[in-house]
Amino acid sequence: MGHVSAIGGRQMSGRAIEARVSQRVFFGVSALLFAVSAAVTIIGAASMSAMGEMPMAGGWTMSTAWMRMCGQTWPGVAASFLGMWVAMMIAMMLPSLVPMLLRYREAVSGIGETRLGPLTVLVGMGYFFVWTAFGMVAFPLGVALAALEMELPALARAVPLAVGVIVLIAGALQFTAWKARHLACCRETPGRCLTVPALPTDAATAWRHGLRLGLHCSYCCAGLTMVLLVVGVMDWRVMTVVTAAITIERLAPHGERVARVIGVVIVGAGVLLIARAVGLG
């Protein structure tokens, strides 16, 4: 009897060691991925900044992210934008995604699943696939709008005011029940808000779980993403502020209250931008 207990104890000790090693690998890979994506984002933003911006009617400048430079093809520009977008999203979302993945791992390991590494990768891939798709939609829309602004000076002159209005709307979204619901889903454990048939314990359901999580979090970040797109999509300062806002409202206690405080700041920025645009006009 004692021999059986000793064997059981060694098995439990072995599982505990494996769990600790797995968790350390998870944190190590996450830190490395964040460092690489942040470095790529900063280098790309600096490179784009070095190319300068185009002065536009209305006293503002257009980012080269939406333009085809000499020697570039549109497929090349699109691929470059998408690569930068994915790196930027990984750097911006990973600080708040890691705790969610950690809760997922704990929930899945609690029902005896041992393939935590591959399943975690699939959830993360599904999550960032949603953001990649968002970038694939944003790029042609941004290019088309930039082309119209260059062809129509009257439209270009209205951009500063439009930016202020969009920022104001983005701030207002922070106070809505829609925002609160999706924020709660991003802060909860797997299965509470996400309509998953069961905890993801195979590749297909892990992928779908990542997709659902990505959709909830993209909805949650809709207002802050709007600010990023209209204020400075490749500006590292804007990216840093938006990343901090996303991370704080996801991880801080009383996230809904934090989101509303962030909303007050964004609304104030929108009012200032509108006032500035009207003054310049």
The average pLDDT is 84
Order of helices and strands: HEEHHHHHHHH
The percent of residues in helical segments reads over 70%
Distance between termini?
Answer: 87 Å
Shape: globular
Give the biggest beta sheet.
Answer: 2 strands, antiparallel
Domain module tally: 1
**Number of helical stretches of at least 4 residues:** 9
Strand order, sheet with most strands: 1-2
* Count of β-strands: 2
Strand-pairing-aware structural class: mainly alpha
Query: DSSP strand (E) fraction?
Result: under 5%
Uncertain regions spanning at least 5 consecutive residues: none
Q: Write down the Rg.
A: 22 Å
Can you tell me about this structure?
The chain has 281 residues and is mainly α. The protein is 80% helix and 2% strand. It contains nine helices and two strands. It is globular. The mean pLDDT is 84. It has one domain. Keywords: Membrane, Transmembrane, Transmembrane helix. This is DUF2182 domain-containing protein. InterPro entries: PpoB2-like. It comes from Paraburkholderia metrosideri.
